[in-house]
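Changelog note: in this version the structure field was regenerated for every chain. One regenerated record is shown below for reference.
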Amino acid sequence: MRQQLVTLAGGIAALALYTGILYAGAATIRDRESSATPDFVLETPDLGETEPSAEADDVPFDMTDPQASDTAPHGNQGQGGSHSTETTARAIEPQQFGLPDEVTTKPLERIEPRSPLSDTDKDKPKAPTILRQPVALAAGLIRFDKITLQLDGIEPEAAERTCESGGKSWPCGMVARTAFRNFLRARAVSCDVPEDGAGETVTAHCTVGGQDPAAWLVANGWATPMPGSPLEEQAEAARKAKLGFNGDDPRDFRETPMPFDDPSAAATMDEAAPDL
């Protein structure tokens, strides 16, 4: 019986010794791993608190001191086997950051924009002005809602003008105005009105239905072109043909007189005198 107890005690002692050896080996391995890979604490300085130095501008890439890194201690090893090391920050790829050569704290200043490369308004043609509801005051003189317009290229004519033909005087100015009203027929007039010509009498070149009204008046003898105007040839042809002011009173060839002074009879004159 005693021999069995001695044998059992020896086995337990051997097992305890084996377990102690295993724990001691595990502790040794942990200490070696801790010394091989210490815990680094990287402290990054605050850029707002640091001041740039002249020497820092000359360092292109690695801003750490090699000698300081070689002689720097690896930290104090305690019982837990941990190490603490403080390192300085270094610039990584500094060429990727484009900073101005001189940084100022002045406020932003707005400068005048540059002039356009080309004058777009000058190159762009001006759109004509469309004038509606025309009222012929005389041959070549038109009244609209807010503007009175004299056709360019012809001399102004008065509605009170009289002409002599066959020893008789006839109101050629009113006849010319009636003919001009029949030509307009209340159609819209497209004119090159100056920008500063609104609200007053202006002179402009116009078209009505794609036709020049000034040229129509000269060709029918109801207007006199300005000296040097290209319409002088048409005026000479009208004089030879005895048209308009150069001819006889057209009312002599009608059975009924033309009511010149009644504006409401414009539609009746349009049907009765389509050629005037």
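Spot check on this record: The chain has seven helices and eleven strands. The mean pLDDT is 75.
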